[in-house]
Design brief:
This protein is of the alpha/beta class and 618 residues long. Helices cover 55% and strands 8% of the residues. It is built from 25 helices and 13 strands. It has helices spanning 31-39, 80-90, 115-122, 135-140, 147-154, 169-176, 204-208, 219-228, 233-272, 278-296, 299-315, 317-329, 339-344, 349-355, 362-371, 381-391, 404-428, 451-485, 500-512, 519-527, 534-543, 548-555, 557-570, 575-585, 589-615, and strands at 3-5, 20-24, 43-47, 54-59, 65-68, 101-107, 128-133, 144-145, 158-160, 188-190, 212-213, 396-397, 402-403. Strand 4 (54-59) and strand 5 form a beta hairpin. It starts with a strand and ends with a helix.
Length: 618
């Protein structure tokens, strides 16, 4: 049979050719790892025009813009984020420039699953480099792929790479620069062979010729999943991971944050000695520095939580957790598809609500949107940590295996989760009657977390947190300081008791007294609508001390602190979340219902908590 080499494309450069490149592939194939390797810290996250699906793009070292598209299984999408990916690929998505080329990423340990999707992508007609990822794992599990034979079968340049190890990346660099692909991956087609539109949907031809040998199933994955997916042992194992994370938070992250706060406080005092004017010194030290220092002290705790989540995701365990969660969610009318958006709500409810676009069922999607704010977001963590450290003793439990503070933190997370499940069940039996849709998920093999992926996740979260501290919280602190010292009398600031802020606090204090709280706490709760974590810096500003916990301990007592923790765990105090709910549901009705329901539930639960604590003489 005669053979023919594909015509060589004209040489292209970044300047006149591949300026915008799309990164597409199924979930869990290492696409994000490749994106991180290509772009490093030159990334940005925004939203696609007209929708709230996140848009991750970055600048490659060679100058091209790389767009990381949502994961897809086919080009016949079911969910909103998959529709976006297909729209960008086909050049029909508003606000996104047309792609010049495509990097198609698949998992080399399961190539047979992706041949149909590869054929669909190639049929779009864009210059495409097929990247068979996880070459290192393929070799370790005794598999084999001949990329030249795959290129012949697909009719497209193909490279065997390991995004985590960085091997094979030179082929990607040459492709991005519009240069010729390496000789060993140039496609050679047999006359009458498979073109892109008629590509084989399995690997039978490759297997028969010896060009593809499926790897052995990971023995570790098989053995560990016997326990991880067990109906009894699985949930216990999941709980063990959670307990370990909270223990790390209070035994390592919180002491590090306390040391950071004390160091920043000492620096602030030193700065104050160089400012002779009393008013200016109060503004700089009390109004700005102390407030920011108090919230920065919780950065290690927040990053610790993200470290644990990223490790669990990158190791492959998070998909198992979704399967475990599906068994519980089915009882309240949801399924495992809601798990990942709800999990991301532990970081922030806003992107979590955006992530619900991956849920095909409109009913399940709406239910997930409405319960997502119950998840304990990272902005609540500083408040939890402040109150727990101030009111709960560091008492060892179970022979020192657990600490009372860590158990208290876990209980607060459990309160939010139970409230979410209760609300989902309530909606399923009233306003959102129906059956949960079927849930299917591919379970990737377990692998060691990639240091680069974990480091970039921590870096991104640090950047977001510090940006929040340097903008919203800084402005709030200044506003709180001025309101708490105005009006001025003969150039002298008023005491807090006679300030404008005290008047505002006086208006809301009657509603808080049944909860054992005072107007100072009420003022802090009002600022939480702008940024939840600002509660800590607001209290520090009002009390004129980085250590706001000691002042609170003297004013509200343990019963009031418990009521405040429950209120904060259940209340909807985030205007950004309400705004995104309004946008996602395209209705003002749902955010109003959500705000009213969560506020009522939080107030009622706090009142009951306070009364029980008083009755028990706590």
């Amino acid at each position: 049979m005669s053979t023919a080499v594909l015509p060589e494309p004209a040489v292209r450069t970044a300047a006149d050719g591949y300026r915008t490149v799309g990164l597409i592939g199924p979930p869990n194939v290492g696409k994000t790892t490749l994106f991180n390797r290509l772009t490093g810290m030159r990334q940005k996250v925004s939203n696609y025009s007209g929708v709230t699906v996140e848009h991750r793009s970055g600048r490659a070292k060679s100058g091209q813009t790389v767009i990381d598209l949502p994961g897809v299984w086919s080009l016949t999408p079911e969910s909103e984020d998959q529709k976006i990916a297909v729209g960008v690929l086909r050049g029909t998505q508003p606000g996104v420039v047309r792609l010049d080329a495509v990097l198609m990423v698949v998992d080399g340990t399961a190539l047979h699953r992706y041949m149909g999707l590869i054929a669909e992508v190639l049929a779009c007609g864009l210059p495409t480099l097929v990247l068979i990822n996880m070459a290192d794992e393929l070799v370790a599990r005794k598999g084999y792929i001949d990329p030249l034979a795959v290129a012949r079968e697909l009719g497209a340049p193909t490279a065997l790479i390991s995004a985590s190890k960085g091997t094979g990346m030179e082929a990607v660099t040459r492709f991005l620069n519009g240069e010729h692909a390496a000789a060993q991956i140039l496609p050679v087609l047999q006359a009458g062979g498979n073109a892109a539109s008629g590509c084989a949907t399995d690997c039978n031809n490759l297997t028969k010729t010896g060009a593809y040998r499926r790897p052995h199933h990971s023995r570790f994955t098989r053995e560990f999943d016997r326990w991880a997916l067990h109906p009894v042992v699985g949930p216990i194992l999941c709980l063990l991971f959670i307990v370990t994370a909270f223990q790390i938070m209070f035994r390592m992250a919180y002491p590090a944050g306390t040391a950071l706060t004390n160091g920043l406080s000492a620096i602030g005092a030193a700065i104050g000695r160089f400012i002779p004017d009393a008013v200016l010194r109060a503004i700089v030290v009390d109004g700005i520095w102390n407030g920011i220092a108090s919230i920065l002290g919780f950065l290690p705790t927040i990053l610790c939580m993200f470290l644990v989540i990223t490790i669990l995701e990158d190791s492959g365990y998070m998909a198992r957790a979704a399967v475990i969660a599906d068994r519980t969610m089915g009882r309240v009318g949801l399924n495992g598809r809601s798990f990942l958006p709800l999990l991301s709500a532990y970081a922030c409810a806003v992107p979590a609500i955006m992530a619900t676009r991956a849920i095909p069922s409109k009913r399940d999607r709406l239910a997930t949107i409405l319960i997502a704010p119950f998840m304990t977001c990272s902005a609540r963590l500083p408040v939890y940590a402040l109150l727990i450290a101030a009111f709960i003793p560091a008492r060892p439990l179970l022979g020192g295996a657990l600490g009372l503070q860590a158990v208290t933190m876990m209980a607060l997370y459990a309160v939010g989760l139970l409230a979410a499940l209760f609300t989902a069940k309530l909606m399923n039996s009233t306003v959102l009657k129906g059956n949960a849709s079927l849930f299917a998920i591919e379970l990737p093999n377990y692998r060691l977390p990639r240091l680069r992926t974990v480091a970039l996740a921590i870096y991104d979260r640090s950047k977001v947190f510090l940006k929040q501290v340097g903008t919203v919280i800084l402005v709030l602190n200044l506003a709180i300081w001025f309101l708490s010292h105005m009006p001025f009398h003969n150039g002298t600031p008023s005491d807090v008791a006679g300030s404008y802020l005290a008047r505002i606090g006086g208006w809301i204090e009657p509603a808080l007294k049944p909860l054992g709280l005072n107007r100072t706490v009420g003022i802090a709760l009002l600022t939480a609508f702008v940024a939840r974590e600002s509660v800590v810096s607001t209290l520090a500003t009002l009390y004129g001390s980085v250590n706001a916990g000691a002042a609170l301990r003297a004013e509200i007592g343990l019963a009031g602190a418990l009521a405040l923790l429950i209120f904060f765990a259940l209340a909807m105090q985030c205007t950004a979340t309400l705004a995104v709910v309004r946008r996602e549901t395209n209705s003002i009705k749902w955010p109003i219902i959500q705000l009213a329901y969560m506020t009522t539930l939080a107030y009622t639960a706090s009142f009951i908590t306070y009364r029980i604590a008083i009755a028990l003489h706590i």
